[in-house]
Amino acid sequence: MDAVHPKDHGTFAEQWEATAQGDALLDAVVRIRQEGDPVRYRHMRIVTVPVLRDGAVAEWIGTVADAEDQWRVRTRDRLLERVSAVSSAQSLPRVFASTAAAVVPDLTDALAIFQLRYPDEADAGTGALYATRVRTALADGVAPLGPISEDFALGALSRETIDRRQTRMITFPPGQPPEGFVSDASAAWMERARATSIALIPIVIDGRTAALAAASSCLGNPPPAEIELGLLEEVLRSVEEPLRRTLELQSIRNTALVLQRSFLITPPPIRGGEVAAVYHPASTTAEIGGDWYDATLLPDGALALSIGDVAGHDLQAATEMTKASSMLRALAYTAGTDGPAHTLSRLDQVTHGVSTAALITAMHAVLRPTTGHRWQVTLSNAGHPPPLLIPAAGHPRHLTGAATPDLPLCVTPGAARHEGEFDLHDGDILLLYTDGLVERRGTDISEGMDQLAHRAAALRSSDRSLSAFLKDLLPPAGEAIDDIAVIAFRADRTRHPMA
Q: Is the dihedral of CA 313, 319, 321, 322 positive or negative?
């Protein structure tokens, strides 16, 4: 029993003891210590039965055979089956989580996966490379890793692994990693976990190290054998293709987000009122919508507000969004005495000629200050959710009458467009939003609209900034199923006088 690997000792001892109580056959594959330095273990198959005399075990009869290749084949097939469900449809953390869970504790006691933040260049001041810890899997009893900042400076061992794109492993006495090889945070954890090794395995995508897997033997257990380290490398290589596709989708989404946010302007300061807007992308790696908002001061002193949503969830939707929002702004600025319905009609005409979007919903409103601390609002709705009026006193209500929706853009050329009018008094808020704000899984959109009105009533306060009010209206993190764009105007000539 002294020669049995510490991680196999408990299970093998139970099997041996159970067999000794009767005439059953013991058939087990365990790691047995080999002679030599450094200490090495090899998988052996032990098949044996006890010989009983007078009810006691007198001796054992059995065989011992090398089982290294048999163990490798069976373990390889089992682990690869575990990660076979990993696909590019998953978010990057889920891909890494599935991979980490597959190899702990079979091949290692702890596995942490780090995505490189800046794989091609080091910090100009310190020369450090940075990564974000994406996922961690730990065997029972292993000390948890402490908190790590978003930008985690990598140690010398990581730098060498990234540069050479080859696995590197160092071994050491329990809880005593050598200085200078790993970061201070990693060294402190290895001491708590009584680690005996650290193996860094590069995850290479298109010839570049995109992530690092850090595997450790802990609790004083021996370092992994060469066959175990080889299997760990093979499992990680098996997910490189779905990882590559996931990273590509993430890159596309990041590009779309940058493009989209470049067109989401900072609302201008308004005399007699306050404008605020927020954009909230859905919590998904692969998709990005075509939502936008805009606020423009017109030559005659009026304020134009618009919000829209291009059908689709990809880079093309974001590209078409930039066309539509830019054209609407230009048409609104040059509209003169023409109202919002005429502006949307012209936009519909132009998009049929220069856009490939299949469908665009939009709301366009023009707000003009009038006498008696009022703003006159004229708006036109192209298939968009109705705006929400949040009065200074009274219950919020959706303006389904004043903003009866016409057909969306890009559906029928020359479709009739209509307008609605109403007044805003001091303290009233006009809220324009995309459908992501009121859509929830398993519920009707009308229910979401009612919930929005109730939330707005509870959060409404003249003492709070309009920006803070909008942020509190957003759903909790992880609940949004679509991107959300919101823009709002609050009439307030007391704090924002006209002159």
A: positive
**pLDDT band per the 50, 70, 90 thresholds, residue 321:** confident
Q: List the Cα angle 412/414/419 in 5-degree steps.
A: 105
Q: Which residues does residue 137 pair with via DSSP β-bridges, in sequence order?
A: 111
Give the Cα separation of 418 and 29 in Å (integer).
79
Residue 42 has pLDDT above 50, yes or no: yes
Give per-residue pLDDT as tens, 93-148: 777 788 888 899 989 999 988 888 754 555 545 566 778 787 889 999 999 987 65
Own/partner long-range contacts of 114-122 (Cβ < 8 Å, ≥24 apart): 114/152, 114/154, 114/158, 114/211, 114/212, 114/213, 114/214, 115/210, 115/211, 116/162, 116/209, 116/210, 116/211, 116/212, 117/151, 119/162, 119/208, 119/209, 119/210, 120/208
**pLDDT tens digit string along 220-232?**
999 999 999 999 9
Helical pair 226-238 and 92-103, crossing angle rounded to 10 deg: 150
Name which of 208, 243, 220, 224 is nearest 129 in CA terms: 208
Distance CA 498, CA 417 (A): 32
Q: Which residues of 171-189 are buried (b: 16+ CB within 10 A; e: fewer)?
A: beeebebeeebbbebbbeb
C-alpha 434/C-alpha 368 separation (Å) is: 23
Structure tokens at 60: 């054992």
Rounded distance between C-alpha atoms, residue 352 and residue 356, angstroms = 8
Check if the beta carbon of residue 99 is closer than 8 Å to that of residue 236. yes
Terminal Cα distance for the chain, rounded? 91
Adjacency order of strands within the sheet including 290-297: 290-297, 303-310, 360-370, 374-382, 420-425
Note the pLDDT of residue 47: 95
> Which residues, including other chains, have CB under 8 Å from residue 213's CB and lie 6 or more apart?
99, 111, 112, 113, 114, 200, 201, 203, 232, 236
Evaluate whether 487 touches 275 at the Cβ level (below 8 Å): yes
Q: Strand pairing partners for 152?
A: 131
Question: Can you give the pLDDT at residue 216?
Answer: 95
Q: What is the pLDDT of residue 289?
A: 61
Provide the residue count of the chain: 499
Instruction: Please state, in angstroms and rounded to a whole number, the distance separating the CA atoms of residues 384 and 432.
Output: 10
